[in-house]
Write a structure and sequence with these properties.
The complex is a heterodimer. Chain A is α/β, with parallel strands linked by helices. Chain A folds into two domains: 38-119 and 222-332, Periplasmic binding protein-like II (D-Maltodextrin-Binding Protein, domain 2); 122-213, 3-Layer(aba) Sandwich (D-Maltodextrin-Binding Protein, domain 2). Chain A contains 15 helices and ten strands. In chain A, the strands form two sheets. Chain A has a five-stranded mixed beta sheet, sandwiched between helices. A five-stranded mixed beta sheet of chain A has the order 7-6-8-5-9. The radius of gyration of chain A is 25 Å and the shape is globular. By secondary structure, chain B is mainly α. Chain B has a domain at 88-280: MetI-like fold (Orthogonal Bundle). Helix content of chain B is 82%, strand content 0%. Chain B has helices at 3-14, 25-57, 67-79, 82-114, 116-131, 134-145, 149-173, 177-185, 190-227, 233-242, 247-276. The longest helix of chain B is centred in the last third of the chain and has 38 residues, at 190-227. Chain B is globular and about 70 Å long. Chain B starts with a helix and ends with a helix. The chains are: A alpha/beta, B mainly alpha. The interface between A and B is medium-sized, with 28 and 21 residues.
């Protein structure tokens, strides 16, 4: 399109006017520069759940926004999250010690920066009527588990080991579809592995008293916590520290007022409203798992390096080859992001 | 149809072409080189491209290991017995599943070829079954048949059934009508017609379907192991990815699976050549 000289002059005048207005706005005494906002991609577990209530609440109450963070949640399978976090595609995600130790041993550059589950959530559960009350009672029994891998398998070996047993002393029944709760309910197995905030809760709600065997006093396996890539830890240090603080603050809010956590979860995942009572029970069990003697003295998020050292030694001794290269606790954890 | 008549049919329908001139060893070697060299060059090119992607992309080995890393891990997995423990498990599943699927597929193809009514009635369901992703069906089948060998054989068999059934159907429907007429003129019974004329004539098509089926059986075995197993190459993939975080082992296992498929395909081609001779 060929403009006439008159049109060209008018266009130039308009551009100059806009530029002048913009310059004046920038120079005026009342104008302030836009605050810097750091974008963070947060990887949560595979399925949106009430177990992520603290993140939903922190987001909805503006804790992240007030800290200058723009948080985006992603739901992915846990092993993928660790790799993506190490690579830097995800800034912060969740993982437990039984995943992190093998991952770091294989050279994935991640660090555990805050504990979320102060009690290891993988447990063995059974009906109280089964007569199973201790790890020793599992001898000769049928135990259901998703498979001979993962955190449940490590936990089971630790539990059996505490009674001088191995997996050869029990009959393992695999439930690759995670249907081991049904197996216990129907009597197909005597006990099964599960999560303290899932299967035992469902068993209770169905009117059956469960018995739950935990490993915390046997091998202090580190529960799920926040992990970051080592490069991200350096590049976004302050933003990550703010994210940790905001998330722990939301955890404290939920401990004081569980209903707030439930409401935040339902706002984020409306499908959860279809079973409000059930989700409230899961949240209550989750809140219990967030707290321990350590968090009572050192605050939510506290990390116990000695527990990591013990766990490394235990996992290195398992026959599965989970720790092919030696690692130490200081290669796995850092407390630099925890609120002082 | 008498034995003499059968020979007449054989001679006419399956007569070998005129004797070909003798091939010298040198000519044979040159012919083989013409086949092998492009394959080798393509392989080298692929490996080079892979390594360039790793270098220029700056990918760490836990995301994309280079070919040398994968090769080293492949060797380690053999020498430390990892593959020795899991390859036979998958191989048994593949062979049993293929046998079951091919047998049922052959029978289904025969039935469909024999009766247009049956073909009309069953074909849509056969296509629907094939269109349903086996990845979605596998967990259900593992639930119904258990996480043991039976569910693996069923899953493999299902995935093999369709190509063998279709290739059998097509092969039988495209038999030269002159051969059928010849058989009828020699008063061949249905059984003689089927075994002496139709199946031999349809064999190239049937074996072509089985070639596809044997490679799909490998896919079926891996998917079945994902749905529930405690051994096998598919289980090893899951373990390498989710528990061991050993990405080089994951890639090495993929290479092992591919080699298994190639070897089984090659075996099928050898069987085909043996049965068909120059018709292969």
């Amino acid at each position: 399109m060929i403009r006439s000289p008159r049109q060209t002059r008018r266009l130039a005048a308009a551009v100059a006017l806009v530029a002048a207005v913009g310059a004046l706005a920038a120079c005026s005494p009342g104008a302030t520069p836009a605050p810097s906002v750091t974008a963070l991609t947060v990887g949560l577990g595979y399925i949106p759940s009430v177990q992520f209530a603290q993140f939903y609440l922190a987001d909805q109450r503006g804790y992240y926004r007030d800290a200058g963070l723009q948080v985006t949640f992603q739901n992915q399978i846990d092993p993928d999250l660790i790799r993506l976090t190490g690579q830097g595609s995800v800034d912060v995600s969740l993982a437990d010690g039984t995943s992190l130790i093998p991952a770091v041993s294989q050279g994935i550059p991640v660090r555990y920066v805050a504990t979320i589950y102060a009690k290891f959530p993988n447990v063995v559960f059974a009906k109280a009527s089964s007569g199973i009350a201790t790890a020793a009672d599992l001898k000769g029994k049928k135990i259901g588990t998703p498979g001979k891998y993962g955190s449940s398998w490590v936990m089971l070996q630790a539990l059996l080991g505490s009674a001088g047993l191995t997996t050869d002393d029990v009959t393992i029944v695999e439930y690759p579809d995670y249907g081991q709760l049904a197996g216990v309910e129907q009597g197909a197995v005597d006990a099964a592995t599960g999560f303290s905030n899932n299967e035992p809760v469902q068993l209770s709600r169905a009117g059956t008293t469960p018995v739950v065997l935990t490993v915390d006093s046997i091998v202090p396996l580190p529960g799920n916590g926040l992990i970051v890539g080592t490069a991200t830890l350096t590049a976004k240090h302050d933003a990550l520290a703010a994210f940790v603080a905001a998330s722990l603050r939301a955890m404290g809010d939920i401990i004081a007022d569980p209903a707030a956590g439930l409401d935040a979860s339902i706002t984020a995942v409306p499908e959860l409203a279809s079973d409000r009572e059930g989700q409230a029970a899961v949240l209550a069990a989750t809140i219990d798992a967030w707290q321990s003697d350590l968090t009572a003295t050192q605050g939510l998020g506290a990390i116990d390096p000695a527990a990591w050292t013990t766990s490394i030694a235990f996992m290195a001794g398992l026959p599965d080859g989970l720790v092919p290269n030696p690692v130490t606790a200081d290669q796995l954890v850092t407390t630099e992001l925890l609120p002082k | 149809m008498t034995a003499m008549d059968r020979r007449a049919v054989d001679d006419r329908a399956l007569a070998a072409p005129a004797a070909t001139p003798t091939v010298t060893p040198r000519a044979r070697a040159r012919s083989q080189a013409r086949t092998i060299v492009p394959i080798a060059l393509a392989g080298v090119g692929f490996l080079a491209l892979w390594q360039l992607v790793v270098w220029f992309g700056g990918y760490p080995s836990y995301i994309l290991p280079g070919p040398a890393t994968v090769a080293a891990r492949f060797v380690t997995a053999w020498t430390d017995g990892t593959f020795g423990e899991h390859v036979p498990v998958t191989l048994v599943e593949v062979l049993l599943g293929f046998a079951a699927g091919a047998a049922v597929g052959l029978g289904a193809g025969l039935l469909l070829a024999r009766s247009r009514r049956v073909s009309l009635a069953l074909s849509p369901y056969l296509v629907a079954a094939q269109s349903t992703p086996i990845l979605a069906l596998a967990p259900l089948l593992a639930l119904w048949f258990g996480p043991g060998l039976v569910s693996k054989v069923v899953i493999c068999g299902l995935i093999v059934l369709f190509p063998v059934a279709v290739s059998t159907l097509v092969g039988l429907r495209t038999v030269d009508p002159r051969l059928l007429e010849l058989g009828r003129s020699l008063r061949a019974t249905s059984r003689q017609q089927l075994l002496g004329i139709e199946l031999p004539a349809a064999l190239p098509s049937i074996l072509g379907g089985m070639r596809i089926g044997i490679t799909l059986a490998v896919v079926g075995a891996i998917v079945a192991e994902w749905a529930g197993a405690d051994a096998g190459l598919g289980w090893l993939l899951n373990l390498a990815r989710g528990s061991l975080f050993d990405t080089p082992l994951l890639f090495a296992t993929l290479v092992a699976i591919a080699l298994l498929g190639v070897c089984l395909y090659g075996a099928m081609v050898a069987v085909e050549r043996r049965l068909l001779g120059d018709r292969a």
